[in-house]
Amino acid sequence: MPFVPVEPKECGMRACTPVEGHAESLLPSEKKWELVWNDEFDGTSLDESKWNYRLNFWGYPSPAFTKEGVELDGESHMRINLIRKGDNFMSAHLQTAGLTFDNPRDETSKKFWSFGEKDPVKFMHKFGYYEIRCRLPKCDGWHAAFWLQAPGIGSHPDPAVAGVECDIMENYRQHKFGTMICGNGWGGYGKESKWAGHFEFPYEETEDGWHRYGVDWTPTGYTFYVDGKKIGEQNAPECAVSQIEQFILVSTECHGYNRVFKSRGEAGEGIVVGNQGEPVPELFDAVLPDYFEVDYVRVFDEVK
């Protein structure tokens, strides 16, 4: 089995305070670490020198993504709110760079290249320990995630060069099944897409609702941690390991929207008409306000 789960257990994590006046990190104790990038969400507005808003999904504007609803509480917490407008729902999707395939076509350009302007790169990095401290949404119908992505995933025959989607945490099964998800996929999202078997593990609540999710990404594999416990790993050669810089995503998504539908043209060919879909029934039962709350996002390099 490409993903090797372990019984969640204490595994020698070390608490440290890399940013004075802020919450501790929990880091694998067998290595030495140096903080190389972080956002503690201080202040009253999102630091857009660190984050982009993802607004497009596979080349079309997404009705589920928005710049609205991101707020800082002045106490070093960021909230991504679920927003309802009539019978429509949306929420923000933050990222430190962007997926090239998201960019809509530049219909005004006479040039052959069809991709529009790329999102600016705010931060990309390879290897190290990636950690978030967060509280999850309370309602079903939308989910939160913390993950790593590559701008050109699937664009090269070798996923080590094209990149690997590394899902450090997804909670879309939490409310119905009481489980969380982590794991990797590569090869893009078409016929060559390969998912090594995302590991599903039981959700365990903490006393104050705060959780720490992290991954130790090395040149030979990925080890996943939750609240100071090792829960599984994916390693070469059974699984692809990215050897290129990737970007960070702190995201939410309302379910039912991001589906690319096709209509049939006069000659019978499929014509992509964009992202359509309808909100799932669970969203109409959501009690607002509901939000994904983040205390910090941190990236550490191993000190040799």
What does this entry look like structurally?
There is one protein chain. A hairpin with a 2-residue loop joins strand 19 (211-218) and strand 20. Helices cover 4% and strands 45% of the residues. By secondary structure, it is mainly beta. The protein contains three helices and 25 strands. It has a single domain (3-302), classed as Jelly Rolls (Sandwich).
Notable features of this structure?
304 residues; Jelly Rolls; 8-stranded antiparallel sheet; globular; mainly beta; single chain
Distance between the termini: 31 Å
Any low-confidence stretches, pLDDT <50, length ≥5? 264-268
The helix-and-strand class reads mainly beta
Gross geometry: globular
Helix content: under 10%
- Please indicate the percent range of residues in DSSP E strands (runs of 2 or more): 35-45%
User: What about the largest sheet?
Assistant: 9 strands, antiparallel
Number of helices: 3
Q: Any guess at the CATH architecture?
A: Sandwich
Spell out the helices and strands N to C: EEEEEEEEEEEEEEHEHEEEEEEEEEHE
